[in-house]
UniProtKB/TrEMBL annotation:
<comment type="similarity">
    <text>Belongs to the 4-toluene sulfonate uptake permease (TSUP) (TC 2.A.102) family.</text>
</comment>
<keyword id="KW-1003">Cell membrane</keyword>
<dbReference type="InterPro" id="IPR052017">
    <property type="entry name" value="TSUP"/>
</dbReference>
<keyword id="KW-1133">Transmembrane helix</keyword>
<keyword id="KW-0813">Transport</keyword>
<feature type="transmembrane region" description="Helical">
    <location>
        <begin position="235"/>
        <end position="253"/>
    </location>
</feature>
<dbReference type="Pfam" id="PF01925">
    <property type="entry name" value="TauE"/>
</dbReference>
<dbReference type="InterPro" id="IPR002781">
    <property type="entry name" value="TM_pro_TauE-like"/>
</dbReference>
<keyword id="KW-0812">Transmembrane</keyword>
<feature type="transmembrane region" description="Helical">
    <location>
        <begin position="185"/>
        <end position="203"/>
    </location>
</feature>
<feature type="transmembrane region" description="Helical">
    <location>
        <begin position="106"/>
        <end position="125"/>
    </location>
</feature>
<feature type="transmembrane region" description="Helical">
    <location>
        <begin position="145"/>
        <end position="173"/>
    </location>
</feature>
<protein>
    <recommendedName>
        <fullName>Probable membrane transporter protein</fullName>
    </recommendedName>
</protein>
<feature type="transmembrane region" description="Helical">
    <location>
        <begin position="209"/>
        <end position="228"/>
    </location>
</feature>
<keyword id="KW-0472">Membrane</keyword>
<feature type="transmembrane region" description="Helical">
    <location>
        <begin position="78"/>
        <end position="99"/>
    </location>
</feature>
Length: 254
């Protein structure tokens, strides 16, 4: 789907990957930058979504590696939520592959808008939730049910998956947010791994686009983590939110 004879498209995706990785490191939601970038170089929505989902995998792996010190002591929680995430991700991927493309074309504008709004209310939601460490035990049944649904969303679309996951964990798990954020990285990697395996079997993945985006997303995440303390997270978050809303509205009328 990418024409290698058009250097501007290749450079555009390289820059989008770097920016997406940096956004993921600072505010989350970098996939909402890659998705419209793929649309901009000529991808249809379904192919853009699948390629975007596969290309995000290295970034999630890097996030887990960087947050590994926050994972000890969460073994039981990781095991049960990872199972729910894997099952939900598989269901989401299957729905994407078996339902007509017209269904995705109709649903994706709503998903983009909802993902953008989720990013917008993320800080407010965290303030309303408070510190999960101040509450009692994990509400495990509710956590697993919510995680399954979040992973279905991630397998089907995946935009702002990290924001959805951290909101879910904050609501139903009892721990410090920094440790839940590390768990969010593990669960994002689980869902991404399922999508890579499933989509590799029968989805329209553009390998050239993945080859461009995967390493640049990883590099962007690493650089973004280094400069995160100097960047205004609020400004960056709202830039992504506004871009996502613009893309969603544009898709509604195309």
């Amino acid at each position: 789907m990418i024409d290698p004879s058009q250097p501007w498209a290749l450079v555009f995706l390289l820059v989008a990957g770097l920016l997406a990785g940096a956004v993921n490191a600072v505010a989350g939601g970098g996939s909402l930058l890659v998705f419209p970038a793929l649309l901009g170089v000529g991808f249809p929505p379904l192919a853009a979504n699948v390629t975007n989902s596969v290309a995000q995998w290295p970034g999630y792996a890097g996030l887990v590696l960087g947050a590994r010190r926050e994972l000890p002591g969460q073994g039981g929680r990781i095991a049960v939520t990872a199972v729910a995430a894997a099952l939900g991700g598989g269901v989401g991927c299957t729905l994407l592959l078996v339902l007509p493309g017209s269904v995705f074309d109709a649903v994706v504008p709503v998903l983009v808008i909802l993902a953008s709004l989720t990013m917008a209310v993320g800080p407010w939601l965290k303030r309303r939730i408070g510190d999960p460490a101040d509450r009692g035990r994990d509400r495990t049944p509710a956590l697993l049910a919510a995680m399954f649904l979040a992973a279905v969303y991630g397998g089907y679309f995946g935009g702002a998956l990290g924001v959805v996951l951290i909101s879910t964990l904050s609501l139903f798990a009892h721990d410090e947010l920094r440790r839940l954020n590390a768990l969010k990285g593990v669960l994002s990697l689980v869902v991404a791994t399922v999508t890579v395996v499933v989509f590799a079997l029968g989805a329209p993945v553009d390998r050239l686009a993945v080859a461009l985006l995967a390493p640049t997303t990883l590099v962007g995440g690493y650089v973004g983590a280094l400069v995160a303390r100097r960047m205004p997270e609020t400004l960056l978050r709202w830039a992504v939110v506004l871009l996502g809303l613009a893309v969603g509205v544009a898709l509604l009328f195309t």
